[in-house]
Amino acid sequence: MAQSSHPPVIVLNDLKKRFGIGNAEHYAIDGIDITIQKGEFIAIMGPSGCGKTTLLNILGLLDSGIEGDYELDGRHVATLSSRKQAHIRSQQIGFIFQSFNLISRLTVIENVALPLTYKGSSRLSRIKQASAMLQNFHLGEREYYMPHQLSGGQTQRVAIARALVNQPSIILADEPTGNLDSRTSHIIMEELSDLHKQGNTIIMVTHNPRLTTYASRVITMLDGKIDTDTGAKPAKKKRSPKRPLGKKQKGRKKKGAKS
Amino acid sequence: MKLLFLSHVQNAQQSLKSNRMRSVLTILGMAIGVASITAILALSSGASKIVSDQVEALGGNIAVVRPGAPSETPFEDIAQFPTKQYYTASTLTNYDLETIQALTGGVSGESNAPLNTPIVATTPEFATISDLGVRDGQFLDPSLSINTAVIGAQLSVNIFGTEQSIGKIVTIKGEPFTIIGILKRTNSPINYNGVNFDAAVIVNRETSGKLNQDTLQIQQINIRSTSVETLDDVIVYTNKQLLKNHFDEQDFTVLSGDQIAQPTSQLFLAIAGTTAAVAAISLIVGGIGIMNIMLVSVAERTREIGIRKALGATNGNIVWQFIIESLALSIGGGISGYLVGYLAAFAISTFLPFDPLISWQTAALALGLSITIGTLFGLYPAIRAARKDPIDALRQYD
What we know:
The complex is a heterodimer.
Chain A: E1 10-19, E2 26-36, E3 41-45, H1 52-59, E4 67-72, E5 75-76, H2 82-91, E6 93-96, H3 108-117, H4 123-136, H5 152-164, E7 170-174, H6 182-197, E8 201-205, E9 217-222, E10 225-229, H7 239-248
Parallel strand pairs in A: 3-8, 3-9, 6-7, 7-8
Antiparallel strand pairs in A: 1-2, 1-4, 4-5, 9-10
Helix pairs in contact in A: 3-4, 3-5, 4-5
Chain B: H1 2-18, H2 20-57, E1 62-67, H3 74-79, E2 100-104, E3 107-108, E4 118-122, H4 126-129, E5 134-137, E6 148-151, H5 153-160, E7 169-172, E8 175-183, E9 201-204, H6 205-211, E10 221-224, H7 228-245, E11 252-256, H8 258-300, H9 302-310, H10 315-349, H11 360-387, H12 390-395
Parallel strand pairs in B: 4-9, 6-8
Antiparallel strand pairs in B: 1-10, 1-11, 2-4, 3-7, 5-8, 6-9, 7-8
C-alpha cells in the first residue's frame, strides 16, 4: 500500500474549535497548523484537556463546527455534505476509541463486521472479512462471544479489528492502550506498527511517553496549540516525554477534551 | 441498498428480541387497534354481502328500476334507501310490467299487528321474480277476488298466533282482505326489495289504489330476464322505453347486479366506517405506544448511534434502522391484530345471522394501516436519532 507521499493526506490550517459561548467561551483547539503525509505514524501527546481528543475527532470528521481549514485528501471538509463525510468515514477512516465502544448487544464478529454494513457488502462477505480480521488478532475462537465476556486486551483488539476491517488508509487511535497493562499494550502497539509498515497513516493520541518510540513523528500539544512537533522524522523522543509529564499535574480540565 | 435493508431487518429483529417484554406489549397495543378494525369490517362486509348474494342466488339476471335520477355518489343512494321512500312521490308511473309498491299503515286481524307492517302491493309475477315461495295456499292471482292477500309467516304468527291463517280476514287500512297464502320464511330481513317479507302483507296492485287515496307510488320495478346474457339488452331496452315514457327525462334509475345491493351495502359500510373510525382511535393509541418505545430505544442507544456514525453510517442509515424497527413493531401488531380480529369476528358471528367476510381489502387495509402507523410514529424518533451529534452521542455514559 506504500505509495509516493507527494500530496499530503491531511492539511490543517489555523484550525480552531470553540466551546461554550460568552464568558464560558474558550478554544479547545486554538490555531493548529499541521501537514500530515501519507504513511506517517504520529503520536500526539499532551496533558489532559489540551485538545488532543478534540483534534482527533475533528480529523475523524466526527466533530463539525470548526473554524479554519481542514483539507483531507485535497478536499475541503467544510464543503462536504454530511452524507459525503459519512462516506469518507466509512471508506477511509478507521477509529479506535479509548473506551473500545463496542456495541454491547452485538457479538464480537457482528461488531467487527459493522463498518462493512455501511460499505454495502453482503452478509456473507461481511462475516468472512470480519472473521479473517479476527484471526489476524488471534481472536478466532472468540467470534461469537459477547463483548462483556472478553478481557480488556481482547476487547481492544476487537475494537482495532473493527477499525481495520474496511481497510482504511487513515487510522485514528485515541489512547488505544489507555486501559491496558504494559504487555497487552505492547502487543497492540506491535499491531499498529505493522499497519504503519503496510503504508497506513496512523494518528495516535497517547499519554504514555513510552509508546512514542513506535511513532515516526511526535506532536506535543498544550492548551489547544502545538507545543512541539518532531517534524518529519528526527528522533526527538527524549524531549517530548518530559513536557507532558511535567505539565500533567496542572493539566486543566476542559470540556473539549474528555478522554 | 438492498443489503443494507436486510441488515436493518436483522438488526431490528435483534434489538426487539433483546427487549422482548417491551416489544410484545407495544405490539399488543397495536394489535388491539387493528383487531377491532378488522372485526368491524369483516362483520359489516359480511352483512352487506347478504344482499348481493341474494341477487346472485336469483341467477344474476335481475334488474331493478327505481325512481329518481342516477346518483353520482354512493351517499345519495343511502339517502334513497328504499324504506325511506314511503312518503316521497315516486317518479315512476303505472306503465310497467312487474311492480312492487310499499305502503305503511295499520294492519289488524283478530289481534293487533305490529305497527309499521310493510304492505306490499304488487303483481302476481312478483313471486317468480323474487323467488318468494308460498308455504300454504297460493300467491296472488288476478282471477280471484282482488281483496285477497298473502302474508308472511312471522306476521301470521304475530297476528293470529299461528302460521295456519288461510281463510282468515285481515284488515288493512280499514279494508278487509282474505288471506289466501302464507309465504315461506325467507329469514332475510335485509334484501334488495327493502322489505322483510316474513313480516309483510302482499296485496294486489289494483287494490292498492283504495288504500292510498287512488294514487300509485311505485317504488321499485323488478325485471328478470330469461338469462344472464340477455340482461344487458333488457336493461338497454327498459332504459330506452322508460326514457320515452318519461319524455326523455332521466328521473329513474335502472340497476343491475351489484348496483342493486349498493345502497344497502353502502349503508352498512357507512355504519361500519363510523364504527371503524372510533376503533381507529385505539390504533392511534397503539401508534403513540410505538413512538414512546422508539424514543426510549433511541435514548438508550445514543452511544450505539454515535459508534455507528463514527464507523460510517449516514444519517439516512440511522433513520432507516429505526424506521424499520418501528415498522417491525407495527406490522407485527398488524398481522397478529388481523388474525385476532377474525377470530373475534367469527366468535361474534355465531350470534348473528351472517358470517364475516374474508376479503383481501380488509387484509390490505390492516397491513396498510400498520405500515402507515409504523412509519408515521417511527419517523420522529428515527429523525431524532439521526440528528444526534456523534461526539455527544459517544460521550454518553462515559
